[in-house]
Amino acid sequence: MSEYFDYKEIRSQNERENDHLEKLCDLINSAKELSPFYGKTLSRIDTGDLKSISDLAALPIVRKSELIELQNTAPPFGGLGMVPAGEMARLFLSPGPIVEPQGKDEDIWRVARALYAVGLRKGGIAHNCFAYHFTPAGIMFDYAARTLGCAVFPGGVGQTEDQVKAINRFQSDTYMGTPDFLKIILERADDLGTPVTSINKALVTGGPLFPDLRRYYEDRGIHIRQCYATADVGLIAYESDVMDGMIIDEDVIVEIVRPGTGDLVCDGEVGEVIVTCFNPNYPLIRFATGDLSAILEGQSPCGRTNRRIKGWMGRADQTTKVRGMFIHPEQVARVVEKYDEITKARLEVSDRDGKDNMVLHCEVHNYIGNDELEKRIADTIRIECRLRGEVVFETVGKLPNDGKVINDTRQNVIS
Fold first, then answer.
1. CB-based contact 234:108 (threshold 8 Å)
2. Can you state the percent helix, strand and coil of the chain, rounding each to 5?
3. Could you give the CA distance from residue 397 to residue 65 in angstroms, rounded to a whole number?
4. What's the rounded Cα separation, in Å, for the pair 229 and 156?
């Protein structure tokens, strides 16, 4: 039996990029014709000009934070859908609310690859503790296990005593759910005097798998790995046995950009995760997830050749309110883009003597004695943010590599 889900996982990077480029061009052409939203936003894009995946950076970004407004204005899909709602297999409504359709009863989420990496094989029994109503997680993981030829118990959430009974009755070998709920089930089983011993592997997402919790599962003989998936696009990346970052799924394109912009950052630098998936019914092209991560250099020692990310590293939406005014990362980006001298910047918001204080820290080459530059940047802050802020120059490389464009250190901020 193969160590890998399919050949895609070990193909060359050139093969992968050529495949993605061909699919991307086909998707853009279809979206321009069938999607009202993309018919407008991509009208000037000529796919003949896309010579490499890096050219994707020229396309506009669709932000998750904008989907609610788009979908309210043009229900139900905000004009992004390429088939009518009645031709979709299932329609989901996640908190926000945000609509996520499943097109034509097919596996658009691709989570089977992550389940295969954790060791689930044909004939296994998966206990699915993701919700099956309103949000797509339950169906998403159900499809994945069935794709591998496994039976699924649709446990959903809650009812821990009944979860214990079901696991022990069916002798389920795999848990699928949030990282902490399995521990609740195991502890409940112990309290009942009916320990769960059949679960030997788990794929988790939807929350942090802290090191202590991972050790708890490993000590109980449970091989646990996590994946990074969203309701919008499905699987984005997943852990393999070597536990060296998360390997990007074969059927998405991942970019990391500076929050508030569409500008790519260098490998290793933390930024916002941008995903393009090839969903033929509800395409998301350069979709800004609002999550932070970074590209790891090199390939995984497990033999899979795709790029890796560090995993989920927080949220990119760093909007805050200062003196009654909202400050967005996009405003900071507009300040920075006006000055070639600035290589990186970070807006620090703090409380000074009971008053809001705003300081833009800028990494600048040869900044000593450049009072004129400092004044011009301060004037630009006032114009773009409609607030006064100080400017402090830093040596290049001084600012933290954490993806933060705005760092609010105040306590009990009311936004």
1. yes
2. 30, 25, 40
3. 30
4. 18
Cis bond before residue 76 (omega within 30° of 0)? yes
Given a contact cutoff of 8 angstroms between Cβ atoms, the answer to whether 183 and 160 are in contact is no
Report residue 242 as tokens: 């070597």
- Other Cβ atoms within 10 Å of 279 Cβ, number: 24
pLDDT at 415 > cutoff 50: no
CA distance 410 to 169: 52
The string of pLDDT tens digits covering residues 58-89 is: 999 998 878 888 999 999 999 999 999 999 99
Closest CA to 310 of 277, 276, 268, 274: 268
**DSSP-based three-state secondary structure for 175:** strand
Rg (CA), the chain: 23
The CATH code that applies to domain 320-408 is 3.30.300.30
Q: Are strands 320-322 and 325-327 parallel, antiparallel or unpaired?
A: antiparallel
Positive or negative torsion for Cα 304, 308, 310, 316: negative
Residue closest to 152 by CA, chosen among 133, 165, 164, 166? 166
Answer whether residue 207 shows pLDDT above 90.
no
Secondary structure class of 177 (helix, strand, coil): strand
Q: What percent of the chain has pLDDT over 70?
A: 98
In 216-336 the beta strands, taken as DSSP E runs, fall at 223-230, 234-238, 246-248, 252-257, 271-277, 284-293, 295-296, 308-309, 320-322, 325-327
Which helix or strand (DSSP H or E) is residue 394 part of?
A: strand 390-394
What integer is the mean pLDDT of 53-58?
Answer: 91
Q: Are 297 and 267 in contact (CB under 8 A)?
A: yes
Going from N- to C-terminal start, the domains of the chain cover 320-408
Handedness of CA 30, 33, 39, 43 (dihedral sign): positive
Question: What is the SS3 assignment for 67?
Answer: helix
Give CA 174 to chain center in angstroms: 24
Token pair belonging to 60: 């506009």
